[in-house]
Design a protein that fits this description.
2 domains; alpha/beta; Rossmann fold; two-stranded parallel sheet; 11 strands; globular
Length: about 425
């Protein structure tokens, strides 16, 4: 491939092939992306520009899932090249990218957020699996305190409140604590935490559940990251108002990937020091934290293809909610491609298997899931496209798309 790119006239030859469709297959696109990444890592701007030129003839924000994903990866590569290559990067400016067609990032209404979340089971899978584990862990307890470390604006809790309201013997008193400092990432919501608390309180009251909702003020985070000390809120137990006799649950939804890889053990150590009865962790089942740019590019292409392909079966290509999902993935890709090793500010996820190793290393043991809880997830998936499935693994449930792992949920207790 490199020789083909360097050969005189090669760009025009590849351009015509691209337009004919012969290059629009995953392996060839990935090969081009990897050549571009390798060229950038070796500071070979000429070869990088040639690869970008060919990729630009493949990418399309209105095309098939591979083309749409390639357009976002190409944008991220061009941005990295222009940032890192200095004066030599002026050659990259010749790559004129077409419009992404993505809507501007904005704060959604509660109704729009519900439509966004309901488009695929990407988020609701974690809600369902985590709530099942929480319900089992707090069985028989009179008071439950959930510390909610998530980026999904409390969308998980109405279902848990409803489940608790039906508990034999009556529901427990429920407290939910959220930190004010959270990653600034899609989807954004145009409603304050306090307003969310009022809405949840009214819903809980209608279900006969006593709810106390607290917002803990913390350091304002940087864009798309937590504050420098990601455990700052948790490391101040008085601010959490921990009470004797409460069953404490720490719920991490799409949270750990925002903590810099070098800080994750410290974060989990702080969580363990709170002595929770349960810790739930839901995140994307992908390894995107390699110091190698080429490895991160390959990881992005192989993993983010899942959601692009699934969206192709869930909504028309011009659907506003679909375009918002794709733009959110595009912003993740830009952070991952632009990041340096152990960066603070990118969503550098790690797979469920690696997370399980990390949890055990930090003094947690897996609680696991049973077949009944897996069946509850399958009932959720029956509302979506037939490509979605669930795997029951040793310490976790894994959402799959056409057999590929997408999102995992795991449940843990201090050993």
């Amino acid at each position: 491939m490199e020789q083909e790119l360097r050969r005189g006239g090669g760009l025009r030859e590849h351009s015509s092939v691209c337009f004919s469709g012969a290059l629009i297959d995953g392996p060839r696109i990935q090969q081009l992306l990897l050549h571009c990444a390798a060229a950038l890592e070796s500071n070979d701007v000429t070869l990088a520009q040639q690869a970008m030129w060919v990729l630009n003839n493949i990418a399309s924000s209105q095309g098939d899932p591979n083309q749409r994903l390639t357009s976002w990866l190409l944008r991220a590569l061009v941005a990295r090249a222009r940032r890192l290559c200095g004066p030599a990067g002026t050659q990259v400016a010749a790559v004129r990218l077409p419009s992404s067609g993505a809507p501007r990032e904005r704060a959604m209404s509660v109704t729009e957020l519900a439509e966004y979340v309901d488009l695929t089971p990407w988020h609701r899978f974690g809600f369902t699996a985590s709530n099942s584990a929480i319900l089992r862990a707090v069985a028989g307890r009179d008071a439950v305190h959930v510390v909610d470390l998530s980026v999904t604006h409390c969308m998980q809790w109405p279902t848990l409140i409803d489940m608790l309201s039906k508990r034999p013997g009556g529901p427990p008193a429920l407290r939910i604590t959220v930190p004010s400092a959270r990653p600034s990432m899609s989807p954004l919501l145009g409603v304050s935490d306090e307003e969310l608390g009022l809405r949840l309180g009214n819903f809980a009251k209608s279900k006969g559940v006593q709810l106390e909702f607290n917002v803990v003020k913390g350091t304002t985070p940087k864009k798309q990251t937590l504050c420098q000390d990601p455990a700052s809120v948790l490391s101040d137990p008085p601010s959490l108002g921990l009470r004797d006799g409460e069953a404490l649950v720490v719920n991490c939804q799409s949270w750990l990937r925002h903590v810099a890889p070098g800080s994750r053990d410290a974060f989990l150590s702080t969580v363990r020091a709170l002595n929770p009865c349960l810790v739930t962790v839901t995140d994307e089942d992908a390894d995107l934290d390699s110091p190698s740019l080429a490895s991160r590019i390959a990881g992005c292409f192989n993993f983010h293809w899942i959601l692009f392909d699934a969206l192709d079966t869930s909504a028309p290509r011009d659907s506003p909610r679909r375009l918002e999902h794709e733009a959110a993935v595009g912003r993740k890709i830009e952070g991952v491609v632009g990041a340096d090793a152990d960066a603070d500010g990118a969503e550098l996820s790690e797979s469920g298997a690696r997370l399980a190793e990390r949890m055990r290393r930090n003094g947690f043991s897996g609680v696991g899931f049973d077949e009944e809880e897996a069946a509850e997830v399958r009932r959720l998936l029956s509302e979506h496209a037939t490509g979605w499935g669930v795997k029951l693994e040793e310490d976790m449930l894994v959402l799959t798309w056409k057999g590929h792992g997408a999102v995992y949920t795991s449940a843990w207790a201090p050993t």
